[in-house]
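Quick review question:
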């Protein structure tokens, strides 16, 4: 978005204030007890007992504290305890888990301008390779692709070079093949390094999925198989991977769906399409559509929003005029949007519903009331407890709207299991939960039986059956049999990975299950999830320890593997993807992200044609491996000039309310061509601004064709002032809408 320096001065003031207040992101965790009151218990920073869908931000899941720098290798005899110890105590900056291996980077030496290097660790603590690579990818199909001394090669899980470091470019293996280039030779190799296909007639090629890869020629996309046979001719302006025999493609500025034979499943008339497991969702001209995977319409309406639950439930949420409704996994409408809020109950044909009075109850999909609307809050025990094997997993936490007391209902018949009489109710750990009443705590079972009377100052239950009891300034930890493990003087104890986070007046430390200190006290740091990537429940301590919880799924990081590779035929772009940099000032002072920094992002590149001139350019997008709650990215467009990638446009987003811009493609509905551009939004307590800038290519440069901004300013009397800008001029809303409506934002197909 191009700022209007005289017309939108208020935006700068808002952004400065927000930057001071929020910085560039950050997020908090939920409290560990279901507390009907607004206050937070002192020193209680444990993870919440509800799925992430109920929290404003993600739950804290791990993070960094500094270590004492000493190598530690024999912390416990148990193979399920602390799993990965980085060599020589070097600081882990980020890590990605795949196929039982952590691909990770160290923090580099900022004093000597020495950048980060990359290595591999096994999940049992064995060093596969030290940090010697300038680039590395997660393991895929048993091999890790890495860059050493300017050349790519492949290693196995013993750290041995399986394919030598001789390649100018290389990609992770997918479906038995990988992309490579050596000088002018480029194509596909197998796991033995044999060239199975030479590529001579394409500008770019993707990895393979379901036996096909999309490729581009002169800015148009088609599909080929591993023999190089063109299965679908390059006639599309954009193309994506096949999923279950279907792929989303673009033609004439609109999206459609094709099958493996190139036949149309959905015509080219949609602005947005998503391939789901059991249906297809699509949007055009303000209408949302559900189709089965054969292209037959299931349902449609002008809903304002359609989205799938963040928890992965097989339902879709519908929104219209601020109300919510529900559709099943095939897209059949269960309820039209008439409710204030809906939360589907996992594995059940029920939903938690908020009525017009702000109270919650439960309805089945026939609309019958199963839990009366008596509660100020109802939450599923849900996915957190299932990790601990609790019999209470299907139940509901409830808070009485009149008394503010908490209890628990059966997930089968919704009968009261734990009476709604407690001030707070914690997570179930092996069918037990900590309850609080009148300042004292005890333990109840999921059937309501009181196992430990409510006479303790503080109690904590942990996933392995251990328990912590506070007695004065001391905490006593016992195992599942009640035998004492250790006692420690501290403020509070949290469970992290396979050990405990300890808080004292000196700071935070980490102890293993036997009470041995692994990471020493360090003022100012505590565990958080800022450095956790892809392996949702692996925790990294920035000092030297990478923890394993046993929840890792071992899946390949598909986004890293299925990344479009730019071939040497357009070598300037290939060099950029390998060693380039991007410079932007859209969210503050000019900032340059070089290759070293970009390697720690998910990088995505694709070739497009711009405007009538047919200029070939690279669209580039990079974001952190573990995307935070708010967007954070670098993006831009690059053209080839004199054998190098020349930056045309660049943008960046930052977390918190200080949002920023990103590069996008605009489809000009008048000229019926794609054009590069910028789109963005900024806002906070003082107002909100949204806008975009559209560029046209002229003599190899991007020149502004149109820009438009919509500004809402909150006045002193709480009224909202709306202003509209086209270019540098304030215009009427009608004029603004006419210009904005000419362009349709297009997000490249991944």
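Suggested answer, residue by residue:
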């Amino acid at each position: 978005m191009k700022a209007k320096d005289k017309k939108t001065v208020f935006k700068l003031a808002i952004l400065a204030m927000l930057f001071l207040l929020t910085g560039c992101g950050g997020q908090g965790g939920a409290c560990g007890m279901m507390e009907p009151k607004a206050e937070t218990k002192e020193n209680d920073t444990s993870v919440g007992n509800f799925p992430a869908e109920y929290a404003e931000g993600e739950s804290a899941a791990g993070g960094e504290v500094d270590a004492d720098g000493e190598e530690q290798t024999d912390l416990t005899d148990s193979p399920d305890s602390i799993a990965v110890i980085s060599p020589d105590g070097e600081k882990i900056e980020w890590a990605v888990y795949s196929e039982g291996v952590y691909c990770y980077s160290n923090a580099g030496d900022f004093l000597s301008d020495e950048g980060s290097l990359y290595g591999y660790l096994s999940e049992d603590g064995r060093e596969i390779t030290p940090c010697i690579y300038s680039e590395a990818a997660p393991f895929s199909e048993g091999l890790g692709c890495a860059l050493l001394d300017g050349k790519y090669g492949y290693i196995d899980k013993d750290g041995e070079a399986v394919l030598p470091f001789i390649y100018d470019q290389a990609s992770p293996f997918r479906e038995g093949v990988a992309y490579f280039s050596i000088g002018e030779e480029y194509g596909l190799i197998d796991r033995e390094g044999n060239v199975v296909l030479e590529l001579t007639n394409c500008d770019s090629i993707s990895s393979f999925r379901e036996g096909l890869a999309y490729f581009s020629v002169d800015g148009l996309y088609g599909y080929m198989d591993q023999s190089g046979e063109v299965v679908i001719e390059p006639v599309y302006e954009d193309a994506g991977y096949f999923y279950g025999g279907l792929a989303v493609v673009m033609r004439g500025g609109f999206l459609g769906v094709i099958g493996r034979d190139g036949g149309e499943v959905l015509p080219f008339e949609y602005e947005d399409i998503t391939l789901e497991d059991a249906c297809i969702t699509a949007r055009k001209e303000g209408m949302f559509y559900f189709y089965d995977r054969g292209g037959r319409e299931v349902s449609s309406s002008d809903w304002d929003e359609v989205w799938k639950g963040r928890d992965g439930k097989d339902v879709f949420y519908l929104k219209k005029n601020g109300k919510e409704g529900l559709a099943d996994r095939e897209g059949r409408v269960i309820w039209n949007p008439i409710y204030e809020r809906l939360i589907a109950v996992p594995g059940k044909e029920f939903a938690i519903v908020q009525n017009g009075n702000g109270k919650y109850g439960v309805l089945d999909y026939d609309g019958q009331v199963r839990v009366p609307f008596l509660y100020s809050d109802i939450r599923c025990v849900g996915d957190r407890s299932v990790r601990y094997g609790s019999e209470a997993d299907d139940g509901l936490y409830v808070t009485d709207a009149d008394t503010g007391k908490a209890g628990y209902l059966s997930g089968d018949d919704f009968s009261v299991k734990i009476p709604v009489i407690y001030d707070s109710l914690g997570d179930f750990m092996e069918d037990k939960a900590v309850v609080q009443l009148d300042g004292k705590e005890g333990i109840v079972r999921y059937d309501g039986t009181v196992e430990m009377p409510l006479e303790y100052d503080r109690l904590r239950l942990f996933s392995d059956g251990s328990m912590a009891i506070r007695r004065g300034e001391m905490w006593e930890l016992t195992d599942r049999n009640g035998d004492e493990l250790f006692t420690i003087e501290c403020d509070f104890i949290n469970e992290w990975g396979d050990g405990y986070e300890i808080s004292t007046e000196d700071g935070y430390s980490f102890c293993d299950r036997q009470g041995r200190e692994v990471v020493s006290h360090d003022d100012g740091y505590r565990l958080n999830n800022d450095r956790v990537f892809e392996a949702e429940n692996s925790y990294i301590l920035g000092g030297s320890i990478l923890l394993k919880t046993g929840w890792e799924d071992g899946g390949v990081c598909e986004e890293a593997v299925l990344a479009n590779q730019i071939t040497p035929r357009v070598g300037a772009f290939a060099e950029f993807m390998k060693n380039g940099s991007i410079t932007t000032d859209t969210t503050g002072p000019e900032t340059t992200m070089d290759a070293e920094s970009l390697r720690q992002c998910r990088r995505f590149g694709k070739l497009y044609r711009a405007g009538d001139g047919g200029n070939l350019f690279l669209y580039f997008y990079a974001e952190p491996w573990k995307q935070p709650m708010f967007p954070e990215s670098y993006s831009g467009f690059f053209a080839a000039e004199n054998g190098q990638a020349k930056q045309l446009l660049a943008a960046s987003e930052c977390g918190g309310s200080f949002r920023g811009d990103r590069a996008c493609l605009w489809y000009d509905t008048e000229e019926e061509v794609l054009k590069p551009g910028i789109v963005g939004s900024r806002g906070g307590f003082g107002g909100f601004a949204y806008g975009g800038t559209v560029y046209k290519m002229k003599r190899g440069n991007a020149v502004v064709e149109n820009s438009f901004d919509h500004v809402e300013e909150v006045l002193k009397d709480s009224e909202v002032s709306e202003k509209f800008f086209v270019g540098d001029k304030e215009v009427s809303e009608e004029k603004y809408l006419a210009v904005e409506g000419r362009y349709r934002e297009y997000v490249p197909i991944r």
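Why it works: The helical segments are 9-22, 382-386, 558-561, 571-579, 595-598, 733-740. Confidence is low (pLDDT under 50) at residues 1-85, 383-389, 523-544, 549-554.
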